[in-house]
Queue: 2 jobs
Job 1
Amino acid sequence: MPTPPPTGPLVTRDSLAAELGALGVEPGEILLAHSSLRSLGWVCGGAVAVVRALLDALGPHGTLVVPTQTGDLSDPAVWRRPPVPEQWWETIRATMPAYDPLLTPARGVGVIPETVRTWPGARRSAHPQTSFAALGARAAEIVAGHAPDCRLGEDSPLARLEERGARVLLLGAGYDACTAFHLAEYRIPAPLVRVGRPGPDGWEEVTEVSVDSDRFDELGHDFERDRAVVRGRVGAADARLFPVAEAVAYAERWLPLHRPREDGF
């Protein structure tokens, strides 16, 4: 059978930049973007065009931040998609390469963050599982100081983004992808977990706050109902724009009421 023609709309760097500006993206601001390339339509130039459009909209004094998580650098005993045989676990732990911010690819966050990660001049934070990459005027200060025992809390780029008045852009992504909500989990009662991962000196375990995006879609629905979230279309994608600080503050109140979790292990 012949390959069906692509579905539109046809999207270009210039059209994306114009639509981002119409949505409300401002030159000079700091933007934490969660994105889906597929949702935008047929993008001429793919992820590179999207990143260029975001940088165009932000201008020379703006900063683009994306999650570049590496959930595969984890204990194979907890892998589910797909699981691996138990007899492999010890070998995997012994041979898994440690995190390298320059070399380790992002996983599970889409092609746009991986494109940002490899962009000339990109900076990346140091956490081996929940790093962020940034481009632009304030990239270095946002990704600096990401503590190895703080995935998404006060010593992560999320707190730096909150302090600096950054906004979240959901570009074809849902609230279940909104990492800003995780910062609230560090400020309310939450269980602790032992997290395994490869380290520079071999396999290591650290104690961390348990993070879980369960019901973030419901949290986002209520947040959007109660707060002034900017909504629009960019290409074929639904887009949302809102302050990191407002999202975190709302989640701090919502989570204990709707998704309480006991403290401790």
Job 2
Amino acid sequence: MTATAPAPADGAPAPAAPPGSSPWQLARRELRRRPAVRVSLAVVVLFVLMAVAAPWLGALGGWSPDEFDKSAVDPYLGGLPLGSFGGISPEHWLGVEPVTGRDLFSRVVHGAQVSLMIAFLATVIVVVAGTAAGIAAGYFGGRTDAVLSRLMDLTMSFPSLIFMIAMLSVAKDVNRIVLMTAVIGLFGWPGVARVVRGQTLSLKHREYVDAARVGGSGAWRILTRDILPGVSGPVIAYTTLLIPGMISTEAALSYLGVGVRPPTPSWGQMIAESVAFYETDPMYFVIPSTFLFLAVLAFTLLGDALRDILDPRGGRT
């Protein structure tokens, strides 16, 4: 009978991967090795499913996010929810909003849809623009590299938060979700571009790239067939780490009153509105804050694990 080698403890260095393993194969192997990563992935999947199924979940709870239930609040106590823990009951699974009586479960799941939609779309813009700029700067070099590098420096030195607040405050009659996605994505791409540029510089003189160039392959074919697969690992890891920052940015802008506008629900907006009731109805503050905290934490832990797997040199301090 052959003895089975014990599995390494959580957080220990991963065993050497078989040659030719793809980034996704490496990620799956690490998920099986680390219980904490599996838990983070499960939480991420749960939030994504909750966001996708928000209309059906709201209907399952029996309330729309904008529907008032005056019978669930006490008009003689300033509109505070009736019952314990913010009005939690079989009719309202997470309680109700003070004064209006709107169902918190429905508003939280629809808020997840808004927050994750903005975070994912902004991340797509950042990753696509950053990867394209980084590959172009690293591969072509010269004037192309100089122009793109200076544009990266200019964008990263710009006071992005002040600009976001100013632009979102001035723009009145526009789709807030589209505008927030574009504005958040506008300032995020240089970080990805710098990572990809460094990887491209190390790849463009590899033997297989020189062989493709000598064999008559054009720049587009080399970039898409040889360079892009080589930078995919760090890009995947960086993408996962971008999402929690995007969620936090959307929540912060909505908290400041320049993000998603009522009656569209948002976690940041709900937290801002709950400040006035934190002494009399603390559950109104706790519930959206907990969902925001768990979403950011799960994406961060998953992103850290993917960075350790796919870009170990980039994760070293």
